[in-house]
Amino acid sequence: MVNKITVGSILLCLILLFLLQRSCEENKDLSSLYAASQDTLSSSRDALGRETVKIAVMEGSYKELKGLKNTQDSTIKKLQELVNKKTVSATIVNSKTSGYISTKAVIMGKDTILLNDTVYVFPEYKSVFTNRWENFDISASKDSIMMNYTLFNEFSIQQRYEKQGVFKPKKLIVEIKNENPHTTTTSMRSFAVVQKKPQRGVIFGVGILTGFFTAYKLLK
Protein backbone atom coordinates (compact mmCIF):
# COMPACT_ATOMS: atom_id res chain seq x y z
CA MET A 1 0.00 0.00 0.00
CA VAL A 2 2.85 2.35 0.96
CA ASN A 3 4.62 1.63 -2.30
CA LYS A 4 1.50 2.45 -4.28
CA ILE A 5 1.00 5.75 -2.40
CA THR A 6 4.68 6.65 -2.91
CA VAL A 7 4.57 5.88 -6.62
CA GLY A 8 1.33 7.85 -6.97
CA SER A 9 2.85 10.86 -5.20
CA ILE A 10 5.93 10.74 -7.42
CA LEU A 11 3.73 10.52 -10.53
CA LEU A 12 1.71 13.54 -9.40
CA CYS A 13 4.88 15.57 -8.76
CA LEU A 14 6.29 14.67 -12.15
CA ILE A 15 3.08 15.63 -13.92
CA LEU A 16 3.06 18.99 -12.14
CA LEU A 17 6.71 19.56 -13.07
CA PHE A 18 5.95 18.64 -16.66
CA LEU A 19 3.07 21.13 -16.83
CA LEU A 20 5.17 23.81 -15.16
CA GLN A 21 7.96 23.32 -17.71
CA ARG A 22 5.51 23.61 -20.60
CA SER A 23 4.13 26.81 -19.11
CA CYS A 24 7.64 28.27 -18.72
CA GLU A 25 8.44 27.43 -22.35
CA GLU A 26 5.31 29.18 -23.59
CA ASN A 27 6.03 32.25 -21.45
CA LYS A 28 9.59 32.31 -22.79
CA ASP A 29 8.33 32.26 -26.39
CA LEU A 30 5.91 35.11 -25.73
CA SER A 31 8.63 37.07 -23.92
CA SER A 32 10.95 36.68 -26.93
CA LEU A 33 8.21 37.81 -29.33
CA TYR A 34 7.42 40.83 -27.15
CA ALA A 35 11.12 41.75 -26.86
CA ALA A 36 11.47 41.71 -30.66
CA SER A 37 8.37 43.91 -30.97
CA GLN A 38 10.16 46.52 -28.83
CA ASP A 39 13.29 46.57 -30.98
CA THR A 40 14.04 49.84 -32.77
CA LEU A 41 15.11 50.41 -36.34
CA SER A 42 18.82 51.05 -36.88
CA SER A 43 20.13 52.58 -40.08
CA SER A 44 23.37 53.57 -41.79
CA ARG A 45 24.47 54.91 -45.16
CA ASP A 46 27.53 54.14 -47.24
CA ALA A 47 29.71 56.57 -49.17
CA LEU A 48 27.21 56.58 -52.07
CA GLY A 49 24.30 57.45 -49.80
CA ARG A 50 22.66 54.03 -49.99
CA GLU A 51 20.77 53.18 -46.83
CA THR A 52 20.89 49.90 -44.91
CA VAL A 53 18.37 49.31 -42.11
CA LYS A 54 17.82 46.38 -39.77
CA ILE A 55 15.49 45.30 -36.99
CA ALA A 56 14.80 42.13 -34.98
CA VAL A 57 12.41 39.61 -36.54
CA MET A 58 9.36 38.77 -34.45
CA GLU A 59 9.53 34.98 -34.21
CA GLY A 60 6.56 32.96 -33.05
CA SER A 61 3.29 31.44 -34.13
CA TYR A 62 0.35 33.02 -35.92
CA LYS A 63 -1.66 32.81 -32.71
CA GLU A 64 1.07 34.48 -30.65
CA LEU A 65 1.38 37.39 -33.07
CA LYS A 66 -2.38 37.91 -33.15
CA GLY A 67 -2.40 37.77 -29.34
CA LEU A 68 0.08 40.64 -29.03
CA LYS A 69 -2.07 43.37 -27.47
CA ASN A 70 -1.74 47.02 -26.48
CA THR A 71 0.83 47.85 -29.14
CA GLN A 72 0.99 51.43 -30.39
CA ASP A 73 3.20 50.52 -33.33
CA SER A 74 1.09 51.02 -36.48
CA THR A 75 3.44 48.80 -38.52
CA ILE A 76 2.93 45.87 -36.12
CA LYS A 77 -0.84 46.38 -36.41
CA LYS A 78 -0.56 46.21 -40.19
CA LEU A 79 1.53 43.06 -39.82
CA GLN A 80 -1.16 41.48 -37.61
CA GLU A 81 -3.76 42.26 -40.26
CA LEU A 82 -1.57 40.89 -43.05
CA VAL A 83 -0.61 37.47 -41.69
CA ASN A 84 -2.85 34.43 -41.63
CA LYS A 85 -2.51 30.77 -40.69
CA LYS A 86 -0.73 30.02 -43.98
CA THR A 87 1.90 32.74 -43.48
CA VAL A 88 5.52 31.62 -43.20
CA SER A 89 7.18 35.03 -43.23
CA ALA A 90 6.03 38.62 -43.78
CA THR A 91 7.72 42.02 -43.78
CA ILE A 92 6.23 45.52 -43.98
CA VAL A 93 8.39 48.49 -45.00
CA ASN A 94 7.39 52.17 -45.06
CA SER A 95 9.68 54.68 -46.74
CA LYS A 96 9.82 58.21 -48.12
CA THR A 97 11.80 59.71 -50.98
CA SER A 98 12.91 63.31 -51.40
CA GLY A 99 14.97 65.11 -54.00
CA TYR A 100 15.42 68.25 -56.02
CA ILE A 101 15.15 68.36 -59.81
CA SER A 102 15.99 71.31 -62.04
CA THR A 103 15.47 71.05 -65.79
CA LYS A 104 14.67 73.33 -68.70
CA ALA A 105 11.20 73.61 -70.19
CA VAL A 106 10.66 73.49 -73.96
CA ILE A 107 7.91 75.34 -75.82
CA MET A 108 6.00 72.65 -77.68
CA GLY A 109 3.21 74.76 -79.15
CA LYS A 110 1.12 77.91 -78.84
CA ASP A 111 -2.48 78.50 -77.86
CA THR A 112 -3.87 81.48 -79.80
CA ILE A 113 -6.98 83.27 -78.55
CA LEU A 114 -8.78 86.19 -80.27
CA LEU A 115 -10.57 88.45 -77.81
CA ASN A 116 -12.05 91.88 -78.69
CA ASP A 117 -9.94 92.13 -81.85
CA THR A 118 -6.85 91.35 -79.79
CA VAL A 119 -4.79 88.23 -80.38
CA TYR A 120 -3.37 86.54 -77.27
CA VAL A 121 -0.69 83.91 -77.67
CA PHE A 122 -0.05 81.49 -74.80
CA PRO A 123 2.86 79.08 -75.15
CA GLU A 124 2.59 75.45 -74.06
CA TYR A 125 5.59 74.14 -72.12
CA LYS A 126 6.90 70.62 -71.72
CA SER A 127 9.69 69.25 -69.53
CA VAL A 128 10.97 65.69 -69.34
CA PHE A 129 13.53 64.28 -66.91
CA THR A 130 14.73 60.67 -66.53
CA ASN A 131 17.45 58.99 -64.49
CA ARG A 132 17.92 55.64 -62.76
CA TRP A 133 15.59 56.52 -59.88
CA GLU A 134 13.09 59.05 -61.26
CA ASN A 135 11.07 59.67 -64.36
CA PHE A 136 8.75 62.63 -64.78
CA ASP A 137 6.95 64.35 -67.61
CA ILE A 138 5.40 67.82 -67.13
CA SER A 139 3.14 69.74 -69.53
CA ALA A 140 1.89 73.24 -68.75
CA SER A 141 -0.38 75.72 -70.49
CA LYS A 142 -2.03 78.96 -69.43
CA ASP A 143 -4.65 77.26 -67.30
CA SER A 144 -3.41 73.73 -66.50
CA ILE A 145 -0.41 71.68 -65.46
CA MET A 146 -0.15 67.93 -66.05
CA MET A 147 2.57 65.81 -64.46
CA ASN A 148 3.39 62.10 -64.65
CA TYR A 149 5.91 61.02 -62.03
CA THR A 150 7.46 57.57 -61.47
CA LEU A 151 9.80 56.64 -58.65
CA PHE A 152 12.08 53.59 -58.60
CA ASN A 153 13.57 51.75 -55.62
CA GLU A 154 15.81 48.70 -55.63
CA PHE A 155 15.67 46.70 -52.39
CA SER A 156 17.68 43.71 -51.25
CA ILE A 157 16.16 41.93 -48.23
CA GLN A 158 17.99 39.42 -46.06
CA GLN A 159 17.13 37.53 -42.89
CA ARG A 160 20.10 36.35 -40.85
CA TYR A 161 21.20 35.53 -37.32
CA GLU A 162 23.37 38.12 -35.60
CA LYS A 163 25.62 37.59 -32.58
CA GLN A 164 24.61 39.46 -29.44
CA GLY A 165 27.71 38.87 -27.35
CA VAL A 166 29.26 36.23 -25.12
CA PHE A 167 26.76 33.79 -23.54
CA LYS A 168 23.84 35.43 -25.35
CA PRO A 169 21.74 33.65 -27.99
CA LYS A 170 21.90 34.84 -31.60
CA LYS A 171 19.11 37.16 -32.71
CA LEU A 172 17.26 36.77 -36.02
CA ILE A 173 17.18 40.10 -37.84
CA VAL A 174 15.88 41.37 -41.16
CA GLU A 175 18.17 43.70 -43.09
CA ILE A 176 17.14 45.83 -46.06
CA LYS A 177 19.46 47.76 -48.36
CA ASN A 178 18.07 50.27 -50.84
CA GLU A 179 20.21 51.27 -53.81
CA ASN A 180 18.25 54.53 -54.20
CA PRO A 181 20.22 57.14 -52.21
CA HIS A 182 17.22 59.50 -52.03
CA THR A 183 15.00 57.07 -50.08
CA THR A 184 14.72 56.83 -46.30
CA THR A 185 13.05 53.89 -44.51
CA THR A 186 10.73 55.31 -41.86
CA SER A 187 9.48 52.06 -40.29
CA MET A 188 9.79 48.30 -40.76
CA ARG A 189 8.56 45.14 -39.02
CA SER A 190 9.09 41.50 -39.89
CA PHE A 191 7.48 38.29 -38.64
CA ALA A 192 8.55 34.68 -39.12
CA VAL A 193 6.87 31.47 -38.03
CA VAL A 194 9.26 29.24 -36.09
CA GLN A 195 9.01 25.47 -35.91
CA LYS A 196 9.45 24.62 -32.25
CA LYS A 197 11.87 21.79 -31.61
CA PRO A 198 11.04 19.10 -29.04
CA GLN A 199 12.59 19.99 -25.70
CA ARG A 200 14.99 17.45 -24.25
CA GLY A 201 13.54 18.02 -20.81
CA VAL A 202 10.07 17.21 -22.06
CA ILE A 203 11.27 14.00 -23.74
CA PHE A 204 13.14 13.02 -20.58
CA GLY A 205 10.08 13.76 -18.44
CA VAL A 206 7.83 11.68 -20.66
CA GLY A 207 10.31 8.79 -20.39
CA ILE A 208 10.31 8.98 -16.60
CA LEU A 209 6.52 9.13 -16.50
CA THR A 210 6.31 6.08 -18.71
CA GLY A 211 8.72 4.22 -16.47
CA PHE A 212 6.84 5.05 -13.29
CA PHE A 213 3.49 4.12 -14.84
CA THR A 214 5.00 0.75 -15.74
CA ALA A 215 6.37 0.29 -12.24
CA TYR A 216 3.03 1.29 -10.74
CA LYS A 217 1.22 -1.29 -12.82
CA LEU A 218 3.66 -4.00 -11.72
CA LEU A 219 3.16 -3.13 -8.03
CA LYS A 220 -0.62 -3.45 -8.25
Task: Please characterize this protein's 3D structure.
The protein has 220 residues and is an alpha+beta fold. It is 32% helix and 39% strand. Strand 6 (118-130) and strand 7 (134-140) form a beta hairpin.
Mean pLDDT: 78
The major pleated sheet works out as: 4 strands, antiparallel
What are the segments in which pLDDT stays under 50 over at least 5 consecutive residues? 18-28
Using the CA coordinates, give the radius of gyration. Answer: 32 Å
* Beta-strand content bin: 35-45%
Number of domains: 2
Q: In which range does the helix fraction lie?
A: 25-40%
Q: What is the tally of beta strands? A: 11
What descriptors fit this protein?
220 residues, alpha+beta, four-stranded antiparallel beta sheet, 32% helix, elongated
Question: What's a quick, concise take on this entry?
Answer:
Helices cover 32% and strands 39% of the residues. It has 220 residues and is α+β, with helices and mostly antiparallel strands.
Topology:
Layout: H1 2-37, E1 42-45, E2 51-56, E3 58-60, H2 62-66, H3 74-82, E4 89-97, E5 106-115, E6 118-130, E7 134-140, E8 145-151, E9 155-162, E10 171-178, E11 183-193, H4 200-219
Helix pairs in contact: 1-4
